[in-house]
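Hi R.,

Here's the chain you asked about this morning:
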Amino acid sequence: MTGRYAARFLLGLAAVVFLFGSTSAAQGIPAQASDYVGVTPCSDCHFAYFQQFQKGSMAALLSDKYPLEQRGCEGICHGPGRVHANVEKAKREQEAATPQTTPGAPPPPPPTLTPEEFKALSQTRLLGPPGRWRFEQTTEEQEERFQIYNPNHQPPKEVSDACQSCHQKDEKASLFARSRHLGAGVSCLDCHDPHLIIGNLREEDARPSAALESQFSVPKRSFEHTWLDNRLLREGEPKLCYSCHREVEAQFQLPVRHRVNEGSVKCSDCHNPHGSLSAPELRAAGSEACSSCHVEKRGPFVHEHAAVRVEGCTACHTPHGSINRQLLKRRQDRQLCLECHTAPESLNVPHPRLGFQAAGECTRCHIDIHGSNYQKQFLR
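And the predicted structure, written out as tokens:
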């Protein structure tokens, strides 16, 4: 190592110590208030994202009532951005000063940083989660340049904790912590985008209501058919749900089905995607989820059908789709009834006057099978 190179190398290390203090790969050092730069440097490069962000429901984070380290892009989601902003600014200055480089050759270091300073900064990354930001030195193989903290690349639990640092008073937060989605490795960002989400006019569920359309002016830019989604969903229902639940998508293609694909019903009408105390993530327990629409089957009845009382509607019906009428699990009513009514007298009861010489369909006589206020055996 020549004396000149050694001097520049030490200068680079000194710059890192000056910027971040002493560091260790194991522990890192906490971020300071001076490591935050505010939203202006972010919007200089990420203008399109910022235009979306400031019109969405997350724009409240831009308020001056929050201290700088809790505000805007850096506050909850991306962490302190001073080093990232400085390095990117230096790179742009260098690109402007030297517009042409040899193909395949690495770009020269920015003029505002020494080569060692730039290399050292490029090997520094930010560790989360929010509120506990730390800097750590990494090898050149791990990081080609400094990257701002990106929640999309973090473990689901860490991402959800970041979201719940604001949404902690929402019942969704407590439910999601025990949900099947989180247990399966799904994070908030798999379904939601904290920036203003855009939809397509060609898709019916992407167009906003008249009231919503009158309140928001969506930036057009290069998209002439964009609309605001007030839930920040990455895609509308049911397409968003189908991206994981392929088997359910197939069930909704069956001849007899709930009209989800037609837009009459949504997945979230029955299921709570953030979690529920009722499996499978139902908004209401047991048959209550069904009776919220099918009110005539709700009861209470003087004489209840045990299958409905114990197992609920799914004892006989499949909720998404079926090849059988009325979403029944079996094609013939008799086959379905005999799954529970196994006594010999249930199996073969002739009714000659009704045309049943051996046995017939149970529902020819037992018509009020969901429950009755008059007949214990649900007869006509």
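Residues 288-372 form one domain.

Let me know if you need anything else.
M.
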